[in-house]
User: Fold this.
Amino acid sequence: MSIESSAIAHRSAPLPDEHSRAGLWWGLMGVLAFSFTVPLTRVAVADLDPLFIGAGRAVLAGGLAVTVLLATRATIPSLRQWARIALVTAGVVLGFPLLTTFALQTSPASHAAVVIGLLPAATAVFAVLRGKERPSKSFWWASAAGALSVALFVAFANGGLGSFHLADLLLVGAVLCAALGYSEGALLAREIGSWQTIAWALILGLPVTITLTVVSRVNVPVNADVNSWLAFAYLGVISMFLGFFPWYRGLAIGPISTVSQTQLVQPVLTIAWSALILGEALSSTVVAGGVVVICCAWLALKARVAASPVGLTGDAVIASDLRGSEERPTAECAPM
Assistant:
């Protein structure tokens, strides 16, 4: 049986409870890495062109991806896998970085962080559509409450329900892009490995990201201080590349809809970094929104997700990361 067909047959199954707990810890490591993205983007956008930041960080990460894949002699994905890698590229390599960067030209980092709190609920929806997971009713109630709290936060922060700004629309678009990229990437990580998934997605996007970076460089002179360049380096190395290693591994161990809820704590971490790094004031609205979001995250994580009949073991997910240059064994798929 081919690599592609054997992996796809079992890609959407949640794993045993002990492996799910490991998935939560891997997911939290990814969340910690991503929690610095918004405030550091805010730092970088003060001196650098948003297009340069959004595309250039992917070029930097793409260069690292080429180096790692060549060094490990990783197996080239199949044609069908490339089509799905394209969805990851569109979501997390192009869509999310570009939309958030342009939004952060005008939106405070703490405000953007809470809007991005919609991401776990959106990822859960894609996990149901693509991964065939079956979250419990209590999970959906908790996720819906978290999404509603974010929507109310945006409304009150902007001065009313009719005062949504362009930046908010860009952030919501970024959330949808990331949710698609996260869910599809998690399924691919079960086949080709977590770091291999983001590496191939970055390489596939290089023709676009390099072109956009050159266009920005030609049209807008680069005149930035050390802090802006350090922030840009973090966005390229950590936010666009290394942070996805634990994040995709956690989602691959799954269930995707449950592990994705760990990202509900990201707005709170981001708000804290925004206060420390940017000196942004913590209003009562931001603090209250963060508390509600954390409570919804806790409730969602306590909810159970029904298991499918078959699935990869946690060891199989880890092994797929270690064997980027070998065939993925078909014997590691076992009944639950």
